[in-house]
Specification:
This protein has a 3-stranded mixed sheet, with no helix packed on it. The protein has a two-stranded antiparallel ribbon with strand order 1-3. Strands 2-11 form a two-stranded antiparallel sheet. Among the domains are: 308-465, no CATH class; 512-579, no CATH class. 37% of the residues lie in helices and 6% in strands. Helix 7 runs parallel beside helix 17 (494-507), helix 18 (511-525) crosses helix 20 (539-546) and helix 20 (539-546) packs across helix 21 (548-559). It contains 24 helices and 13 strands. The chain is globular. The protein is mainly alpha-helical.
Length: 640
């Protein structure tokens, strides 16, 4: 593996700012300015992983939560076939290469800061302690991503384990998994003791960040084949240290779940770590959604990926910033929508996580399920200005701007709305409706097969945690749907700390305290104070009956789409079973019949196997690196 020490550095003032410089020597890390600049470059490297297509493909779909939408860019990560291999997506430099290529450069920068920073003459001892602890957290965070994705990884970049390497080399080995976890936990343990109690500047980590990731690291190792006695207890201890002293560290659950992901509120008391983007077209070309090359790999396109294709076949809908540019990548599974979120009355998180209604934003056409003859015959109804249902007549069945154009009926309202199916001026989807336009709108209807992998999985409730309606100079009124997000991407938040504690307690067989931890999260999620008793009434029984599956269900309700799910299922050894149960019908190519069935291509959906609990090492690494013994860099078992 060729490791080149790279400097993409800047000064750090009130916030982290990117000001790339060239021609700097490693001794720069022995100055205060150099340390801060190096840290900024490491924070910046996370922009290749969080909120990007490469990072999200590795973590969001191919799980029980999300299958691929109609415009999927990398089906192998969802269907676990032979095309999931080392060369997958190599030409684009995304997905597998996203953490591999970016992580090691950032790690080596941290190595340099930790190794040389203690000599900085222009910093006080406390300043150096805080900054070096920051580097330890960031190094551990990158290694946490790498180890949970690939398993055994490289600790020696050419100058010794966790040493700063200044000489490019293609000799590399994979350290034993136990050594990898020991390095991660040592860094995080020290960071939890040495970081400041509060962040030194917006966007920087502090003790709360370290306690959270330390708890997650112990938890993950505790489930692994290199577990150590006491891992689950230490996981709980780290999580509980943060929970107990939350006021000291400025941490709290927000009263309203909806405000956690509210645009403009990303620096709230619940957020323990987030990745920042600069809202500046001149210094960081992040806003053009059609951007290619290197910059495209670090664009935050989270505001695109979960969108359904609301602009195709739909009355009164054109693309706009409020509804987002539809990339149609990640479709919620039926299990996620209708089983995990079965209780949509007492639990507010479904309504606060998903968009189910789209309002007409353009001069409308007829509902595609109608014919003009049906309208003329009064076979459909619409509301008049007084809200009274009246028969629609010729020329009066079109929508006005602001009217409902699309409604995804939730499972608990099916009985109420079913009599109105195909009798309203807007399109109404029910939970069991096929999401192919031919199946829904009829085999003779002139539907649009809009690009992508196939014409299935176009229409579904849309996760709205990443909505981004930011305005750009020169944009149309209301914003531009074709700019990528510059919202901070939330990585760690305090609600997960409670769920980590609960999982550790379950493994320690302390179910009563685990129930208490879960109920803190569920109480906050209640739709009203009157709903709170119902939210916690059955937690103990559900946990007793379903164990880790109940905690995974609760993690889904709280954390759906937050770039964690694949790792949750792998950690708890539940990936194979739950994908087989809940994501066994992803879209596949073929001819779609009027009833939604597919002919012409067999629907063979390979389920994950044991070796799929790790991702393949990228081909570029296998081709470019040698082991110390002269052989090839080793691939994970099961992959070519």
């Amino acid at each position: 593996m060729a490791v080149v020490t790279a400097f993409a550095l800047s000064g750090c003032k009130d916030i982290l700012e990117e000001q790339p410089r060239a021609g700097l020597t490693p001794t720069y890390y022995s100055t205060g300015t150099g340390i801060n600049s190096g840290l900024t470059s490491v924070y910046s490297a996370f922009k290749f992983y969080y909120g990007t297509e490469g990072g999200m493909n590795l973590s969001v779909y191919g799980t029980d939560e999300f299958t691929h939408g109609q415009q999927v860019s990398n089906p192998p990560l969802n269907i676990y076939g032979s095309t999931l291999n080392a060369a997958m997506n190599d030409s684009r430099g995304g997905d597998l290469q996203t953490p591999w290529n970016r992580g090691y450069g950032a790690i080596n920068t941290c190595n340099g800061i930790i190794e040389l920073g203690a000599e900085a003459p222009d910093l006080t001892d406390d300043q150096k302690k805080f900054l070096l602890a920051e580097a330890k957290y960031l190094r551990a965070h990158w290694y946490f991503i790498l180890v949970t994705t690939f398993g055994e990884v490289t600790l020696d970049l050419g100058s010794g384990p966790l040493k700063f390497n200044q000489t490019p080399t293609n000799i590399a080995s994979r350290a034993p998994l136990a050594d990898c976890w020991a390095a991660i936990i040592k860094d995080l343990d020290e960071a939890s003791k040495e970081l400041p109690d509060r962040p030194s500047a917006q966007g920087r980590v502090w003790k709360a960040s370290a306690f959270h990731l330390l708890a997650k690291a112990y938890l993950t190792r505790g489930w692994s084949q290199v577990s150590q006695a006491g891992d689950f207890q230490k996981s709980f201890d780290a999580a509980n240290a943060l929970i107990t002293d939350r006021a000291k560290y400025g941490v709290a659950l927000l009263p309203n779940y909806a405000t956690v992901h509210q645009e403009g509120n990303e620096y709230n008391a619940e957020v323990l770590f987030q990745v920042d983007w600069m809202d500046n077209n001149q210094t960081f070309a992040n806003t053009n959604g059609f951007l290619g090359g290197e910059e495209s790999l670090r664009q935050n396109r989270s505001n695109y990926f979960f969108r359904m294709l609301y602009v195709t076949n739909m009355p009164g809908m054109i693309r706009d910033a409020a509804n987002g540019r539809p990339f149609v990548r990640y479709k919620p599974t039926d299990w996620l929508l209708n089983t995990a979120f079965n209780d949509k009355i007492n639990d507010s998180r479904y309504d606060k996580s998903f968009q189910t209604v789209w309002k007409c934003n353009s001069a409308s056409t007829l509902n595609p399920t109608w014919t003009q003859a049906e309208v003329d015959a009064g076979a459909v109804t619409q509301k008049n200005n007084n809200g009274v249902l009246i028969p629609a007549v010729a020329g009066q069945a079109k929508l006005a701007v602001g009217d409902t154009a699309i409604f995804m009926v939730p499972n608990h309202l099916v009985t109420k709305f079913l009599p109105w199916k195909n009798k309203k001026s807007y399109v109404m989807f029910f939970p069991n409706d096929a999401t192919s336009p031919k199946a829904y709108f009829g085999s003779t209807n002139a539907f649009t097969a809009f690009g992508g992998y196939n014409i299935q999985n176009q229409y579904y409730p849309t996760l709205r945690k990443y909505d981004a309606t930011q305005f750009r100079a020169g944009s149309p009124a209301g914003g531009d749907p074709n700019v990528t997000s510059v919202r901070p991407f939330i990585v760690h938040r305090f609600a997960e700390t409670y769920l980590i504690a609960a999982e550790a307690l379950l493994q320690l067989n302390n179910k009563p305290l685990a129930v208490d931890m879960i109920n803190v999260v569920r109480t906050r999620a209640a739709a009203s104070s009157a709903s709170a008793p119902a939210m916690i009434a059955t937690t103990a029984a559900d946990l007793d009956a379903n164990g880790i599956d109940y905690i995974l269900d609760e993690r889904t309700r709280e954390l759906a789409g937050e770039q964690m799910r694949w790792f949750d299922l792998v950690r708890t050894k539940r990936l194979i079973e739950r994908v087989g149960l809940y994501n066994n019908k992803p879209a596949s190519p073929g001819t779609i019949n009027a009833d939604g069935s597919i002919t012409g291509t067999a629907q063979v959906v390979p389920a994950p196997k044991d070796f799929n609990l790790l991702r393949p090492i990228p081909q570029i690494q296998l081709d470019g690196a040698l082991s110390p013994e002269g052989g090839k860099y080793p691939q994970n078992q099961g992959y070519n």
